[in-house]
## 1
Amino acid sequence: MDKGKGQAGSTARLAKHIEKDERYKLCPSCGNFADFNSNEIYCILCGTRLLDACPECRSPIYYPTAKFCPACGEKYNRQ
Ligand SMILES: [Zn+2]
Ligand SMILES: [Zn+2]
């Protein structure tokens, strides 16, 4: 029995580039953050309304620890 007929099954897994879809909401007051898809509207720590985008250019917030908008340089914490 010759079973040497291996198909060239090169399952080259295309490493699909995961789109950076993670977004966050930031508290402009105390720096707390929440997942963008959470239904939190206000900061659970200080009650300030969370930013779901840059207040200046409306760029999405991709970094939960960001203090400034990477697109326009606007400070998120505008008091
Ligand atoms: Zn807060
Ligand atoms: Zn901005």
## 2
Amino acid sequence: MKKDINPFIMELVHEIRSPLTGLSVMLDSIHDRLSGRPDEQELIVKALYEVERLENLLSEYLTDTITYPSGFFAGKIENIIGDILLITEKRCEKNSIRLIKDLRDTEMRMVNAPKLKQVFINIINNAIESMPDGGALTVSVAEEESAAVVTVTDTGSGISESELTKIFDHGYTSKPDGTGIGLHTAKKILDAHRAETLVKSEKNKGTEFIIRFPQI
Ligand SMILES: Nc1ncnc2c1ncn2[C@@H]1O[C@H](COP(=O)(O)OP(=O)(O)OP(=O)(O)O)[C@@H](O)[C@H]1O
Ligand SMILES: [Mg+2]
């Protein structure tokens, strides 16, 4: 996909992303300063969501360029997850979702941290969106048999067997305002980490994403 994309466009896409990241950080900080004003906070959360969507669309152009080892540095998966839990906590609070986290120490491994953050934001957003009436979200990380294993479990709407074969397809969405790019991009980034991705789901019960990161 898009292998012949103009280098100028690649650079432009890349350059647009940095201020977007800055914008997210600032919006996050404004959110915290507005404590006690839930209506204003809600607007900020919506703005953050829009920034993320834009980041996702742009990343689609850049994802093809992710190949190990370029952009990969030694890091720990639990720290990457830790960095996105703040925003996850806020979203969960707003949506009456109980957040259960269990982040254990894992080995250092080669990771592209900004890309992996995007992967987990996508998976967690989907989990939150599957629980419009609240529920529980469990996020755990642990070292198991020389792999860092991340699990993200929700008690949401679940995915039927036939839908399960399509969730990573480019453009597949069941949501009226979805782009269907989130999981497609996530899978490419996980593949570049040689991670194994397993999805277990039961309609109306919930979904579990299990991702195993080997040493690369
Ligand atoms: N945790 C989940 N629970 C239920 N359905 C899910 C879950 N994760 C993914 N899905 C299904 O997979 C589809 C594709 O997900 P993906 O993140 O790629 O796109 P989207 O969420 O529809 O759109 P966008 O991410 O652009 O908002 C979703 O529309 C949904 O049907
Ligand atoms: Mg999504």
